Amino acid sequence: MRKQWYSSRWAITGFHVLAWILIFLLPLLGPGNGHGQNPEWRRSLFNKVHVGFTLAAMAIFYSNAYYFIPVYLYHRKKWQYFLLITLCLTAFCFFGNFLFHPEIINGKFHLNREFFFGVIPFVFLWTMGTLYRFASDKTKTDQLLKEKENENLKTELSFLRSQVSPHFLFNVLNNMVALARLKSEKLEPSLIKLSGLMRYMLYESDEEKVPLSREVEYVGSFIDLQKLRFGEDMVINVHMDGKDDYHPIEPMLLIPFVENAFKHGTGMISQPEIDISLQVNKDLLDFRVRNRYDGESTEIRDKTSGIGLTNVKRRLNLLYENRHILSIGKEDGWFEVSLQLKLNP
Hints:
Blueprint: H1 9-24, H2 26-29, H3 39-44, H4 48-73, H5 78-100, H6 114-117, H7 119-163, H8 166-182, H9 187-202, E1 210-211, H10 212-230, E2 235-240, E3 248-249, H11 255-264, E4 273-281, E5 284-292, H12 307-319, E6 324-331, E7 334-342
Parallel strand pairs: 2-4
Antiparallel strand pairs: 1-3, 4-5, 5-7, 6-7
């Protein structure tokens, strides 16, 4: 998964450096009671109080974000964590008091009101460090989950490629043997379709996106070879546009619906029929597949039946979230699938 430039290490480091520079120069960005035009005021930024406070603020922020939270809070050591934060608060307040009043009177270090002024800045720094850590970890977790989902999609796609029923391939090859013996003119175009189908399934589907026309061509070749297999024993109605459409689409996205129709719409079914339609209107793809089925049939299907539809649902939810409508239902002896997909321009 390609990493965004703003999530790279150098970009994050640059953002941190810029943020602390802006915080350090913050007194110059406000009205400052006219001090902004005073060179002495500008030089006063580099006195021990301002520099010391900025360094202490950085120490509090990064200690909390990169050490206290991951080492103690994330490991359920809450009491140790809050004890450390309390000690840091005390140390921060003492340090602030020392910056403003470093003098020792009668051999004793006295607390002044500046000691208590450090509470509010400390709470602010602690809150910002905690929010930054939580947000950073949430971003990393989401990125890892996305990468994991992408890897799962690749695995599922590989599984879908291998899921094209071997019975289908064996039957097609047997039919081609019969065509060769009959010296039929259908042999050559059938071999070309099978070659294109295998090439797309094994090589081109490794691409992240393919033109819609290529997916439609693959589905069409699959249907033509099924027609060769079933001949006149089955009614297959196909109306597909998109043969010249170059909208990008994920490979092997449509074929599970078609293969599922042939798996469950054939066999011990009287008057088997499959209807397949695909239309593209601007950026909207409308894909429909329906087949007759026998609800009372106890015929045993191969072990991969139905797995393809489960995978393609997950792929649609991950890749086309809020950009697709998938409807699957049974009515009057028909199993129907309807997919409306918003294509990227």
